[in-house]
Design brief:
The complex is a heterodimer. In chain A, 28% of the residues lie in helices and 18% in strands. By secondary structure, chain A is α/β, with parallel strands linked by helices. Chain A is globular. The mean pLDDT of chain A is 96. Chain B is α+β, with helices and mostly antiparallel strands. In chain B, 48% of the residues lie in helices and 9% in strands. Chain B contains 9 helices and 5 strands, in the order H-H-H-H-H-H-E-H-H-E-E-E-E-H. A 5-stranded mixed beta sheet of chain B has the order 2-3-1-4-5, with helices on one face. In chain B, strand 2 and strand 3 form a beta hairpin. In chain B, helix 1 packs across helix 5, helix 4 packs antiparallel against helix 5 (54-64) and helix 5 packs across helix 6. The termini of chain B are far apart. The mean pLDDT of chain B is 93. Classes of the chains: A alpha/beta, B alpha+beta. At the A-B interface, strand 7 of A face helix 6 of B. The structure holds iron/sulfur cluster and FE2/S2 (inorganic) cluster (FES) (2 copies). Residues 95, 97-100, 137-141, 144, 146 of chain B line the site of one FE2/S2 (inorganic) cluster (FES).
Chain lengths: 795, 170
Amino acid sequence: MSANEETVTIEVDGSAVEARKGEMLIQATDRAGIHIPRFCYHKHLPVVANCRMCLVEIEKAPKPMPACATPVAEGMKVATTSEHALKAQRGVMEFLLINHPLDCPICDQGGECELQDVAMGFGRGISRFTEGKRVVADEDLGPLVGTQMTRCIHCTRCVRFLDTVAGQKELGGMFRGEHMEIATYVEEGINSELSGNVIDLCPVGALTNKPFAFRARPWELLSFPAVSPHDGVGSNLSLHTLRGQIMRVVPRENQAINETWIADRDRYGVEGLKAEDRLQYPMVKREGQWHEVPWETALNRAAEGLKGVVERHGAAELGGLLAPSATLEELYLSARLLRGLGSGNVDHRLREGDTSDQAHAPLVPWLGQSIAELEEASAVLLVGSYARHEQPLINHRLRKAALAGTPIMALNPRRFEWNLPLAVEEAVAADQWVQRLGGVAQAVAEQTGGRLPDSLAAVAGPIDGTAREIARRLTEERTAAVLIGNMATSHPQAATLRALAGFIAEQSGGRLGVLPEAANTVGGWLAGAVPHREEGGHPAAAAGKAAHEMVAQGLKGYFLLNVEPERDLWNPQAARTALGEAEQVVALTVFADDTLREVADVLLPMGAFGESAGTFVNAEGRWQSFRGVGEPPADARPGWRVLRALGTVLALDGFAYNDIAEIYGELAGRCQERCPEPLSYPQEVLGGTAIAGDGLSLAGNVPIYAGDPLVRRSEPLQRTLIAGRLEVRLAPATVERLGLAGGTERVRVRGAAGSVELPWVADAAVPPETAWIPAGLAGRAALGGPFGKVAVEAL
Amino acid sequence: MTEQSVAEKVLSADQCRRIDHWLAKFPDDEQGRASAIIAALHILQDDNGGALQRQHVEAVAAYIGMPRSSAFEVATFYSMFHLDEPVGRHKVNFCTNLSCCLNGADELVAYAEQKLGVRQGETTADGRITLVREEECLAACTGAPMMIVDGHYHTHLPRERIDEILDGLS
Ligand code: SF4
Ligand code: FES
Ligand code: FES
């Protein structure tokens, strides 16, 4: 008998193996390192036992049993390599190969194919099957996943993944028996934001990485650990390179973060690395003309430019706008450089418009819990978040929680296409958001006997049924999570929304968390890339201007770290004007689009994701460092090296680092307390601007593939149906009121500073009197920030 | 177009009522509702000249709340559903599975094919008879060889019976 109540002891191939009660045999043997061949089994997918490759011999059982679907039992005696077991395994292998083509030499899976590997071990040298093999027509599943369906062995891993993990079952096993085909039938592709995972799951070469097709053989590739640069999850990746060139990305298992999955943008973001507007050489502008110059010239020119602004106008006229997807080291050196020049105008909060609570903000705006802990929350309230497109793998955790019965609720400026059941989904017009969240706060206070502080009570709306419902579920148990999403963070009253969310979390005894937008949103706070705090959160001598202030007020000189003015900044219209009118704009950048070429004076090419070493701090406060493994093109250099050189040219103290480890060590030393808990914000109204005026309430979020310069240039991602296009979505009632039906396909949308013509779409998910227009897309700049008021007119 | 609107566009009030009749027989959860799919597809097929079109399957999936791909799995799996294929006024299914095969089903199929001038899976040019695609066991082994004509079982078939039955179809 086994000593522990929870375990049983079984015997596998003559040795004793401890197994957990009720688990399947294959789980125990996997843990014990005993290999059993398999195709359909996967530890994160439901068991179907349809491939029969895992047959083993079990004492007293007359027939071989599938290890993936046979629960362990005390005293069970298993033989995985006995004559009987091997005979069964060989038999299955022979059946599986009957219809599988012998096209390994032209198959992308060759060299990393589970079927090939298992066939080497269990297959016959010569096939006894002389009849014709079946052929299956390939289906176009979209720009990401390539198909060669004749190779499919019907393990259904792809079908089960899309159904149970991605929550969008677009593939199925069509037809029957020998005619079975894995297909969508409707031929509309697979459109989940996690679709690429089916490539890794497919044990054969039926589903492959489409853009990577025929680029390299697996055995030619070198593999290096990396961390995704596209969101605050920090998914663990492996980068595969061939002769210094980045060829593809695959997931690296980390159960605490991304399990075995990655989002499509983590996988296909690298397709943007070779975009045409990739900056190859340092460039300076002379009399309106760009010239490629040696690094020395460019650095001298950049240094003179920045110093000149300070000398002529004072350091307060210089500002640094830093990408939140930059590495910790790049952000730290950039912030030091600006402070070294005497300017406190440093910020990485590029998409924020209300930072009035910053003085009392926590050290870092983090998730308030670990990513895995999200699954344990008793209830979740999302305030301004479409997590599915903003942090896909955090959404995956929420989905798991929802399927296990946790009520997930959302108070957003519109409804979205979730892949999880929401207990409450309330769409509130963006100009009513503070009132409505205030109503929820009042309802929570009513339940708990608490009292909403006066300044918040003054802006809170009445308690309605929805507010009561949300409050009831949040206060049922004291382990709820209130999560502030990207849309709330970019709202012009973000600080008030944070204050209310903080009150709600505190009163309900739950945790407050922020869903960070970019890979290093959290890291930027630690690196001193905020105007009021230096590295490690130490208060700055004098607070400088926040990003939105630098843009709105217009400075004489700017330093840009991988920023695209029209797409990355909160108010692209004002950004364009401010940068255009500045005397000096120095941009350290991976790409240089037309707008940047127009406004900048010096362009310094930097290494992109995968080409520079560095560190990201993810949503849960985890520091993850990685090496630079791809070669930057031409004269581009890792950002930290450029910044080190620029600091040296500027004769600033303390830029003589020998390597990046020194930068990391110095910063880490100044951030002793890396992630405090819990998260709290001041519970009062400190500033922000209510959305007022006539017209429709403008609202929008950043589409899934528009968040950073690299992902925007990934052509396969941009061709997906979920990439988001520039259009205005209106509630059917609004369409009717405006008399648009039957009229032209386009409308004029007039904002405070200008107007654009856009196609319109009627969408019942949008609340009445809202104009939903995605942010972060080219061509909407004239409308200014993501929220506000606009007029929509028929053309 | 939203999923709801596909159902609204394709299903009549009467069809919804008949599907509801079946839905009521199963538990009102995801799996229970999915159990009504076969009955629902039959309703749509019967009302649409004996064959299903893509939109019928989509509408049923939306109406009972199951993934579209799962509904197509069902509609393509069973030979009793005729998805995206034209059918004749009558459907004739020959069983060619084990018991029937041992009792000479293959010759009967060959005979019927020759008589009608179409292969299994095809419809006569005059739109009179569809010879349904090759079948799995039709659950009448004791009466092998057998065929089903428009839902009616005919067992212990000699050739003459086939002539008689097929000639009697208008
Ligand atoms: S396509 Fe690949 S993963 Fe999907 S069923 Fe076929 S072999 Fe399995
Ligand atoms: S792995 Fe067990 S049956 Fe497929
Ligand atoms: S084999 Fe024909 S009815 Fe069973």
